[in-house]
Amino acid sequence: MIELLLVPLITTLVLAFFIRYKRITWTLFLAANGFVLYKLYSIYGIWNLSYKVDTAYKILGAELTLGVSNNPIGWYFAFFSALITLLISLFSIGFNKNSRSNVSVIWMLIIFSNLGIFFAQDWVTFFMMWELMGWTSFFAITNGKDKALDGAKYYLALSLFGAALMLIAISVLAQYTGTFQIFASAYGLLQIINSSTKLGIGILLLFLTTFLIKSAIFPFYMWPQKVYSEGPEDYITFMSSVMIKYGIYPMAIFIVPVVGSADLPMILNTGNVLQYTIGYLGAISAILGTILAIFQTDMKKLFAYSSVANMGYILLGFSSMTIVGFEGSLFHVVNHMILKAAIFLTLAAVVFRTGESEMHKLGGLVYRMPLTFMTFLLGIIAAAGIPPLNGFGSKWMIIQALMSKRMVVFAIAMIFASTGAFMYLFRALASIFLGQLPDRYKDVKEVPPTMAIPMFIMMVIMLLTGVVPGVVMKPLTSALKAVGYNVEVASWTTLEGSLKNSVIDLKIVFYMFVAGVIISALMYFFGNKSEKVPQNDNYTAGEYPEEWGVDADRFNYSYAFYQPFKEMFEPLLESVSIDGFFASIGRNFEFLSSTIQGLFKRGEGAVLLFSIGVLLLILGGLII
Amino acid sequence: MMAVLRVFLFGIFAIFIGLLFMGIGRKVIARIQLRYGPPFYQAFLDVGKLFARKSITHNFVMDLGMVMALGGLLATMLFVPIAGHVAVKTSTNLIVIMYLMAIGYLGMAMAVAASGNPNATIGVSRALTMMLGYEVPFFTVILGLIIVNGTSSLELISQSQAGSILNWNMIKFPLAFIAAEIALQAMMGEKPFDAMIAPAEIASGPMVELSGKYLGLAFLTHAVSIFVETAIIVNLFMGGASNIFTFVLKQFEIYLITIFIEAVFPRFKIEQAVKFLWTVPIGIAVLQLLLILL
Amino acid sequence: MELPPAMTSRWDVERFGVGPMATPRQADVLLVTGYVSLKTLKRIIRTYEQMPEPKWVLAFGSCTVNGGIYWDSYNTITNLAEYIPVDITVSGCMPRPEAVIDALQTLMKMIQSGEAGAYKKYKENYEYYKANQDRVLKKTVPVLGQTPKNDLEGKDEDAKE
């Protein structure tokens, strides 16, 4: 078990030595990821593996034992993140050929903390890994670029805030339950909630806030767009597909069991208060993420908001607190990992070839990069949740769960978000790949094989997971069964909903789709033959656009794509901006700190502070 | 082999009925406008002519997208129960049907955007905005029916209304039916919700660069979508039917309502349409949902 | 002006399955209604070339046949058939909607009997048509495409001569 963590750590050191030699570092990086994946594959099903360091210390009345152990849900998260990471690292070899800086060292350290988070046995190890991940990603995002500093700082500040909250929560929890073990403390927290509700909910909310920050849920939905638009593209792929799920994992193993079985006031007999809190946060994230994504012009920002919306779906699934919703959420975690990785890889390929990430400056790239286009197409079909690709199954399960619990508001929010998803996904497709190819991209080429192969594998994985969801659902259900949930191991192609007669066979859906396409292809071949015309031969009411000074770039409709729709939402979006709220907090802090600083600099301030301190001391003594 | 033949027959049937409806619809509109109107088989002639003509394409995405459009809608059609018959044995899940329908629209949107004509892209952007407009009220209606019946299977919902006409959801939940009708009008892209086509303004929008068989495929896609959408409404609100003839007759009644509205109304601007769809039908649907829940 | 009544309730050309299309890609028949100025000709040619085959041209009114009352204008053409192949013409100034309907039906009959195939002539004699087009279109220089600089240069040359 320990070698799983040691290998990334040692690789980090080795990589740091060879940081100047790109070819060596990235090959080593790939090899290390391959090892991690292989090792994870080999420890499947051996749930009693663990490695512990017993210290004799006791903090806050709880025994301090640092340890990692193989737990089923952690394995599920770790395995699929390792798979995606392997593909991204293969992509990185080609992608980083010409880049100046080298992100591989920091990235390897993040992979180490990644495994640490998923396999941590106790809160202290978990917290250490969490912190490690927080500040290492700061360096990975900036990666030597000043421009990225703002976004990275924002991310770091939120991370530190979250970590501080978690530290408080861990200490309080340890004080009351006398243990640092994650699973043991979950039962402890449940007892606390049942005995003194306010304290229990307080602890739970502290934990929840930490995880929400990491998963970019509603009040903290701003960091992805700030970070994704600046960081190195291949690392951003990792971040958007794998790292954003770090908040989901502890929610799945800790928050959901506690909230689901806590005895709290119910709303409409469908769920308790906390359930609804989580659900509303998820619903707001889903809707707000969708609406904001529709109005972005930068493609990376667009998909950053799409991630926010997808995290919202996962939270909605959790909020139903049914086994179908829970399975659906965890399934969506992996689906989102796969499809977001595929989409961001294509975006990285586009940036690699054109150096442009503003959508309205691109266009017509399908003429030059057909494979990238196909990957992107399958990616957005999956992201829109359309069968027969992945992304559908999990969304379907979540909606089923919400409907069976009669959570109508959440179900409508989900439908709103996934229909709105068509809007922004299609906008990205049309603006980047379709339309007219501007003259300046006439000699853009398809990406080299090292980048094309991972994209192709991504396509295969998306289709496979879409048609045979068992490849994910089987490990998931066995893991849930091993943890003690009352589930049956899923079959290869069918998914089971929670309503009456709601078993769907995705294999049949796929066959029907193929049948439909065959009939329609027959019609197509039955028709008379067609002739290919160049892109500028277009209907323009008889005019020659060139004569009016309209070149291919200006002939695209890709700026202000949903203008009438945007005008509808403008008043709303202006009044609701969490960013302004955070900025005001920042300003207040600045003001406060400069005031305190001023007090220190001048002599009378020191006297004042001293006297305040004495006063507080006396007051404290009196109270105690 | 039988299954393949069955699937093929269902597909052809849907195309046939859809085209027939389109032809009769044109005739009905003409009669409302005091014209004589084309013969009822005009839609077949049109499609035949379009397939026989030569056509132009801009790149392979156009071909792929058009095939995907018709393919996606035919696949949807195979999941819809027609008078109790389904092409294959499935649970006829409503959510699956709604999502599968989207792939057809996505294919169509992709094909026309690939042509590189700004009019087409404007049309698609309007169509997608409209989609967000009508999906929300329509789903709210469906949600109410699903909660009442405790199932999301279209077949079970239609079976639950068997017996007399009083069991129909149309009678039991009239508000839901009205909301669904308005959403259906937008779903079919008929007036007053046809801002995405708007021939005089954006040169028929998505269809601007489609010629010959591409336009033919677009026609067939529209025909199948008419079939699927009316079939969903018939199953949801009119209790399906015992035989195919009655079923098609009921579908035609639904289509006639749409055509009547289409014939006499002018066009909404896109933001007016979405505002309307998000106030009136949603209001009605939510009222019905509250009546069901409480 | 004759087409709206032909399409609407009074004459209703749709009963013969004929309807207006928004773009040349979807159209079978190009109706050239009225006199053709040189600027219009340029657009007509682009539109005609964008129509997929098979395609037919219906020249409408005397103006398109012999120039009509514009026969001696400096910037209208007199015979459309010199520039694009015309399948059928409707004479009159202006023709009645009945004449339009009659022409369309005659065109249909001609198509069925295989008489109407002028688009093939356009392909075969492309040089002839192209030469004719270029001869007159020389006179139309794009108005907005020119930059002021070119104008000045042209004036300078004139002044020298």
TrEMBL record, chain A:
Membrane topology according to the record: Multi-pass membrane protein
Gene Ontology cellular component annotations, sorted alphabetically: plasma membrane
Subcellular location: Cell membrane; Membrane
Entry keyword set: Cell membrane, Membrane, Oxidoreductase, Transmembrane, Transmembrane helix
MF (Gene Ontology): oxidoreductase activity
Catalytic activity, EC: 1.6.99.5
Keyword Isomerase: no
Main EC class the enzyme belongs to: oxidoreductase
Signal peptide as annotated in the record: none
The protein, known as: NADH dehydrogenase (Quinone)( EC: )
Main subcellular location: membrane
Stored InterPro entries: ComplexI-like_HydComp, ND/Mrp_TM
Domain NADH:quinone oxidoreductase/Mrp antiporter transmembrane: 120-418
Species for this entry: Thermobrachium celere DSM 8682
Keyword field contains Cell membrane: yes
Coiled coil: none
Transmembrane region(s): 6-21, 28-47, 73-95, 102-120, 126-142, 154-179, 199-223, 235-256, 276-295, 302-324, 330-353, 365-387, 407-430, 451-472, 508-526, 606-623
TrEMBL record, chain B:
Source species, domain of life: Bacteria
Record keywords: Membrane, Oxidoreductase, Transmembrane, Transmembrane helix, Ubiquinone
Gene Ontology cellular component terms for the protein in this record: plasma membrane
GO molecular function, a single term: oxidoreductase activity
Xref: Pfam families: NADHdh (PF00146)
EC number(s) on file: 1.6.5.3
Annotated compartments: Membrane
UniProt main location, coarse: membrane
UniProt KW Transmembrane keyword: yes
Membrane-spanning parts: 6-25, 60-82, 94-115, 127-148, 168-187, 214-238, 244-264, 276-293
Topology with respect to the bilayer: Multi-pass membrane protein
Protein's recorded name: NADH-ubiquinone oxidoreductase chain H
Organism for this UniProt entry: Thermobrachium celere DSM 8682
From TrEMBL, chain C:
Cellular component GO terms, alphabetical: respiratory chain complex I
Presence of the UniProt keyword Oxidoreductase in the record: yes
Region (Disordered) residue spans: 142-161
Residue stretches of biased makeup (Basic and acidic residues): 150-161
EC number(s) recorded for this UniProt protein: 1.6.5.3
Record NCBIfam families: PRK06411.1
Name assigned to this protein: NADH-ubiquinone oxidoreductase chain B
